[in-house]
Predict the 3D structure of the following.
Amino acid sequence: MKHHLILRVITKLLVGPIMLFAFYVQFHGDYSPGGGFQAGVIMAVGIIIYGIVFDMEHAKKVLPAWFVHKMLAFGVLLYTFTGVISFFRGKNFLDYSALSPHSAIHGQHYGILIIELGVGITVSGVMIAIYYAFGSRTSEINDAEW
Amino acid sequence: MSLSISHSDSFSLIEQLPILQILVPFVSAPLIVFIGNRKVAWWIAFIASLISLLIAINLLLLVNDGSIISYHIGGWAPPIGIEYRVDALNAFVLVLITLISSIVVPYAYKSVENEIPEQHHTLFYAAYLLCVTGLMGVVITGDVFNVFVFLEISSLASYVLISLGSHRDKRALTSAFNYLIIGTIGATFFVIGIGLLYMVTGTLNMVDMAELLEGKSSSSTVRSAFAFIVVGVGLKLAIYPLHIWLPKAYTFAPSVITAFLAATATKVAIYILIRFMFTIFRPSFLEELNVLDLVILPLSIAAMIIASLIAVFQKDFKGLLAYSSIAQVGYILLGISLMSERGLTAAIIHIFNHGITKVALFMVAGAYVIKRGGSLLTDLQGAGFTMPWTSTATVIGCLSLIGIPGTAGFISKWILVEAAIENGKWPLAIIIIFSSLLAVIYCWRVIETLYFKNGDSKIIVNEAPLSMLISIWIASLACIYFGFNTDTTISISDLAAKMLYLTSLNSY
């Protein structure tokens, strides 16, 4: 897209604010609209639009495919291990009140923040992985293979 | 939920068993992706399966006396929060799933190496564990929407797993896509049914829902919800006319996956059907609608006879077994449709016995795929001499499939016939025996090709790898073991059936 000057300039301007907005949605998700899922998608949009306009190879330099795979696994692990912590405090799985020794309400608050972060990482990882998978498709299946 | 803080740092493993059952395979799946080494992936899958099996057996021992374990996720009490609820039926199906998984994973090591390209191995094991998680979640949960979520987890994973067969045969892609479309329609119907029930009752907890549904059986919303759920689950469990996805998916999927799904996926769908019919809608509702006599019974008879007839004319060993699976689902549904405790016992015990029989047979088919290059009956000619151990296991599996005395298959068919006669429906007993005779015909075709059609004049023993043989033989010996030691399986199925018929359900 070398000849699309306007697109390139606007994209460069937008990628930063998009990511900033993703973080806003991520960390204000517990008391305003938003949360990990939306933030993950918005974050992925930042990378994907960069990839579309400046070629996917450049996007892959920022976030290599292997790293994206680890991201989506890490998010799920973060979520589950947050739940597992409550086991060791004598509470049931995902009982966030076990997270803070002082106040159950704070515990609930931390819990939702951490698992939403896990959700956000996984969702953005999945979105980017899907984009990479479709974007880097090899040539069509040749006749001999059918 | 109380927000007071108790500093009881006691970590009681027994109390956390229901969630650990799900968590162990669920955490292992992303861990495999995170580590990203295919040898480690196999080990994680194997250890996770074994731990799950231990947990499932423990749970079964805990509920063996007819008690119910209720686990509240996040500490939120049931009608609002999600509840995991384990009773005899759940625990029995959980043991089946984890047992099959523990048998199949050692077998997978060589089979996957042979059938799936190396770069997909880690993702294969991750998807496999997600499939196991989904199936177990469906069984253990006491929340209807949770059932749907776990059903989707297992289904999505199984679409991926089936499509991985494309390395050996490109048709795996179309059959996986077919299954995806039909499976999604099934899941949609199922969730529409749940939505309608939620509209009527305002709750998603099974026990709560059952109580609130009482006396609302004439409501057309409830009735259409029931219809949607039966059709949706019917697509998943391959009730006779809704079975078209099954034969192709089972034929072209990797052998490991066929073995695993054939033994568990349809069984879990049957579990959902039983759970909805008996725990949520209650037998009185079924009697009022007469749905079992008018719909399920004719369809199960059609499955038993037509699917068996189609199996007789199959050219592919896996395809033959797939059609036989549809026929066997017919037996289980027949047991349910008898509307008696004995019939339900027969259905539950056949879920287990058919599970171990089919896993043995499909694993054998996978061994032929590796050594003979395919599972067509023409590929199998004379294999009885070149692969003696594998073929002996085939014979045992076939005998159990037919229901010869001394095998697991005999026990469940015997109880089924008994239940049919007890209900005064002796024509059904004749149909069961007739269908078994059809099973004799298709099993004989396999045995004939193995032993009486010698392809080569020279016999060179070329046996399947040892790790595969061990799994195959564990499953085959289990077929015989559960044919003789029937106390455990019968007593548990009996207990499960009794508890389903108990109208006054225990509260939390």
Notes: Residues 19 and 312 of chain B are 44 Å apart (CA to CA). Chain B touches chain A through 29 residues (CB under 8 Å). The beta strands of chain B are 69-72, 83-86.
